């Protein structure tokens, strides 16, 4: 009987499961033993069960730029879990809390006194030119002083296994539904393994999110707020997630057309007339929220919503204007923010980053394009990105032009050799690059779902893990540290 | 409940029922045809034209097809994506609506609706159809009934469920008028008489397509007559696919939605359903046939359309 991992080659990377060929890391030992009792056929059968269950449940995302008729795809799911030991997680958790506190302090500051600018830590110009900065909200106090209620911060590990922050998603981060669904799938497929492993559960997330939303409800809700999730609609890429979360929280999912504003109060249209709404978990970007304030062509939003928000009659999560915190140029300054606001050293370092707005950095970037990863400041989902070593000369020339034309909008980073994990690819276990997106909630306190979304680049050698670019996911296990590890 | 949710659940119910009824309608026609030997072009038009007339689809069909063949009509009503009422389109819309209210319906419902959609999308439906069309239409019918059964057994019977029921019964009432009307459109071959062998076997097919054969035979002790079948499918109070039964349920569910006492009305849909209900409660075969069956059915269809509009305006588009 051929064993699943017999031929596995961890290669010249940081491998999550093996420290060398045939040398399993302690926290994966039990998994390996279980895998050895499993034939390739058994494993493949389990994989098919998992895949079918995703398809039947319609757990799909929508791909843009797809000429074919059906634009729904299932998110490829790999059955080998990513395991994080308890002590490692404690460090990550501490680092993420620190980071979120700093980001929230930064947003408050930047929409009020701008001390961080006045004291010379961040140049005024960077803030002023940030695409998602909302000067209209200067001096505005958000409920409970929380700007980012839900944050998805992407972490990677370098060749030495160090955790680094790649970016923060402080607007509408998505992916948490896959965390919850993949856990359910894994429990169905490998029921015995969980009990013995001491894996921390993730299913409190929906309740925690409801708590956050209720915590920021306006006083007018009198302790019994009506909370809704605002979606762009069923054709949005993340619609599955929107409806999944609404269901898990037991709240109504609404589109812009379901809401209306009268006398600066928000209502939803029900079969029994208008019903007041107090808290909106919006999964629509600022630009589309209110056509009377932001983009007038938006059909997704609600005219008058922003004024209702200003008057304090409705709360939004996340708040308006948080995008300035996940601008990739502002990212560069997050370690400095942590020192400035908290007086602490960052627990989780940034990836080394060059700003093309800075003359000396720009020179270095332009001379080394073939070695660097270039990102535009405000794109996400793996769009608008250049991976130097894998790019054609044409692509490099195009980025050179774009950087010279608009230096404010680009940053560059060295290519990080992301850690790898075994993944089942075309009939054998092969090393594939992964990252990690933990989800951080900020209400009365900061809470982090144990683990998060591990994304895996299913194509050999690829460093791009985004679902829109052929990435898949893995279940992420954070160990409770109490169950013996071997 | 959100108005949009009401609208989507209502249409989800309607489209599931419509997919099933189209399958029934096509199946009965295929069955009727088995009784005839000659298969000239004229016969094909004679047998398949009425399906399109009763579905009010002749115009679009003619635009899409130059030739009039049985295969073309079957494909048009079963798979044609450009036909908004084809079985395939109905399933698509049912799923789109279900997806829009995924948070309101049970996972079991969603999985069954999604499974039916996948069956059409991955090519299995077309394959099964080619292998044996009768079994294929049965499968669609059962899939719809499974969805309806799962709906009753797993969804909270609150407002959203009532909207699903409203959609289902209004659609079923409408379909039964169309299935009955189909018999009116189909001309008897020359030499055949009303009440003759061919005529009676066609009426039996109509009964079968409404799953009404056994129930009817019990009531009438095996005596199949045109008047008997029409009365049964229009007026029977307890047969679940008769027009009267469907309108009774519709009226009930309307009153449940607004919490109005039955027999009274507080809004337009309740007034209209009450009116149609009492008409059907007091109808006799004579009163139907004095109008002419076709005209009578036309009248019922019009009333159902008005009901649909009033319902929509009262709860969804106020």
Average of per-residue pLDDT values of chain A: 91
Radius of gyration of chain B: 19 Å
Instruction: Indicate the CATH architecture of one domain in chain A.
Output: 3-Layer(aba) Sandwich
Q: Can you count the beta strands of chain A?
A: 24
Oligomeric assembly: heterodimer
Basic shape of chain B: globular
- Helix % of chain A is 25-40%
Measured by DSSP, the beta-strand proportion of chain A falls in 15-25%
* Percent of residues in β-strands of chain B: under 5%
What is the mean pLDDT of chain B? 91
What is the number of domains of chain B?
1
Overall structural class of chain B, as computed from helix and strand content, comes to mainly alpha
Span between termini of chain A: 24 Å
Q: Extract low-pLDDT stretches of chain B.
A: none
Discrete helix count of chain A: 15
The biggest beta sheet of chain B is recorded as:
none
Main β-sheet of chain A, in a few words? Answer: 5 strands, mixed
Describe the protein.
The complex is a heterodimer of chains A (486) and B (318). Chain A has 486 residues and is of the alpha+beta class. Among the domains of chain A are: 97-149 and 203-342, 3-Layer(aba) Sandwich (Rossmann fold), CATH 3.40.50.11290; 354-414, Dna Ligase, domain 1 (2-Layer Sandwich). Chain A has 15 helices and 24 strands. Chain B has 16 helices and no strands. Chain B has helices at 3-33, 41-55, 58-64, 70-78, 87-100, 107-121, 124-131, 133-154, 159-185, 197-209, 213-220, 226-235, 243-258, 268-281, 285-291, 293-315. Chain B has one domain (3-315). Chain B has 318 residues and is mostly helical. The radius of gyration of chain B is 19 Å and the shape is globular. The A-B interface holds A 55-58, 70, 233-234, 239, 243-244, 246-247, 252-255, 257-258, 268-272 and B 1-6, 96, 99-100, 102-103, 107, 110-111, 114-115, 118, 121, 159, 257, 315-316, 318.
């Amino acid at each position: 009987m051929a064993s699943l991992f017999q031929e596995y080659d961890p290669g010249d990377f940081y491998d999550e499961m093996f420290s060398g060929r045939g040398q399993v890391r302690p926290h994966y030992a039990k998994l390996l033993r279980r895998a050895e009792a499993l034939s390739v056929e058994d494993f493949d059968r389990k994989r098919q069960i998992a895949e079918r269950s995703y398809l039947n449940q319609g757990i799909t995302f929508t791909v843009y730029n797809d000429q074919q008729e059906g634009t729904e795809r299932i998110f490829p799911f790999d059955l080998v879990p990513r395991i994080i030991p308890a002590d490692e997680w404690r460090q990550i958790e501490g680092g993420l809390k620190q980071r979120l506190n700093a980001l929230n302090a930064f947003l408050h500051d930047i929409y009020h006194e701008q001390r961080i600018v006045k004291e010379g830590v961040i140049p005024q110009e960077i803030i002023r030119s940030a695409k998602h900065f909302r000067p209209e909200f200067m001096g505005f106090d958000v409920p409970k002083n929380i700007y980012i209620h839900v944050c998805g911060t992407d972490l990677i590990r370098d060749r030495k296994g160090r955790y680094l922050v790649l970016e923060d998603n402080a607007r509408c981060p998505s992916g948490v539904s896959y965390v919850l669904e993949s856990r359910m799938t894994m429990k169905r497929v490998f029921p015995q393994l969980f009990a013995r492993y001491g894996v921390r559960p993730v299913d409190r997330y929906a309740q925690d999110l409801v708590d956050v939303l209720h915590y920021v409800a306006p006083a007018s809700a009198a302790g019994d707020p009506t909370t809704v999730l605002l979606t762009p609609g069923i054709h949005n890429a993340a619609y599955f997630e929107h409806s999944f979360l609404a269901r898990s929280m037991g709240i109504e999912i609404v589109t812009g057309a379901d809401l209306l504003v009268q006398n600066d109060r928000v209502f939803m249209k029900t079969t029994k007339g208008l019903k007041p709404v107090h808290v909106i978990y919006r999964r629509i970007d600022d630009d589309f929220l209110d056509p009377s304030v932001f983009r007038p062509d938006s059909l997704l939003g609600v005219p008058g919503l922003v004024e209702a928000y200003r008057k304090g009659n409705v709360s939004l999560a996340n708040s308006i204007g948080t995008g300035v915190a996940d601008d990739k140029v502002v990212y560069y300054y997050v370690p400095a923010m942590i020192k400035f606001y908290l007086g602490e050293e960052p627990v989780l370092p940034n990836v080394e980053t060059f700003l093309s707005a800075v003359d000396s950095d720009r020179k270095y970037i332009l001379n080394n394009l073939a070695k660097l990863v270039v990102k535009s400041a405000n794109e996400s989902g793996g769009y608008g990105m250049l991976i130097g070593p894998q790019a054609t000369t044409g692509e490099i020339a195009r980025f050179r032009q774009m950087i010279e034309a608009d230096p404010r909008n680009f940053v560059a980073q060295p290519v990080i050799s992301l850690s790898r994990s075994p993944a089942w690819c075309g009939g054998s276990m092969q090393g594939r690059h992964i990252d990690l997106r933990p989800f951080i909630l900020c209400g009365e306190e900061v809470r982090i779902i144990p683990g998060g979304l591990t994304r895996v680049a299913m194509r050999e050698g690829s460093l791009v893990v985004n679902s829109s670019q052929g990435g898949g996911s893995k279940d992420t296990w954070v160990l409770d540290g109490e169950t013996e590890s071997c | 409940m959100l108005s949009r949710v009401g609208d989507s659940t209502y249409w989800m119910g309607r489209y599931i029922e419509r997919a099933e009824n189209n399958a029934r309608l096509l199946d009965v026609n295929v069955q009727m045809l088995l009784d005839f030997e000659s298969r000239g072009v004229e016969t094909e038009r004679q047998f398949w034209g009425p399906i399109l007339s009763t579905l009010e689809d002749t115009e679009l069909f003619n635009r899409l097809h130059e030739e009039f063949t049985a295969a073309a009509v079957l494909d048009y009503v079963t798979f044609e994506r450009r036909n908004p009422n084809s079985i395939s389109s109905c399933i698509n819309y049912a799923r789109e609506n279900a997806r829009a209210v995924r948070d309101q319906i049970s996972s079991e419902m969603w999985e069954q609706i999604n499974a039916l959609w996948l069956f059409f999308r991955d090519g299995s439906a077309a394959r099964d159809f080619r292998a044996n069309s009768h079994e294929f239409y049965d499968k669609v019918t059962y899939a719809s009934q499974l969805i309806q059964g799962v709906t009753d057994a797993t969804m909270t019977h609150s407002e959203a469920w009532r909207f699903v029921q409203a959609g289902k019964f209004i659609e079923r009432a409408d379909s039964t008028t169309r299935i009955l009307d189909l018999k009116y459109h189909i001309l008897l071959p020359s030499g055949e008489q009303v009440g003759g062998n061919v005529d009676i076997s066609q009426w039996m097919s109509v009964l079968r397509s409404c799953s009404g054969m056994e129930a009817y035979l019990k009531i009438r002790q095996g005596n199949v007559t045109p008047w008997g079948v029409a009365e049964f499918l229009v007026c029977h109070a307890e047969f679940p696919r008769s027009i009267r039964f469907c309108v009774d349920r519709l009226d009930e569910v309307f009153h449940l939605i607004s919490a109005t006492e039955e027999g009274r009305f507080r809004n337009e849909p309740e007034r209209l359903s009450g009116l149609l209900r009492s008409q059907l409660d007091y109808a006799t075969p004579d009163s139907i046939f004095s109008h002419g069956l076709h005209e009578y059915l036309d009248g019922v269809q019009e009333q159902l359309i008005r009901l649909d509009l009033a319902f929509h305006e009262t709860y969804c588009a106020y």
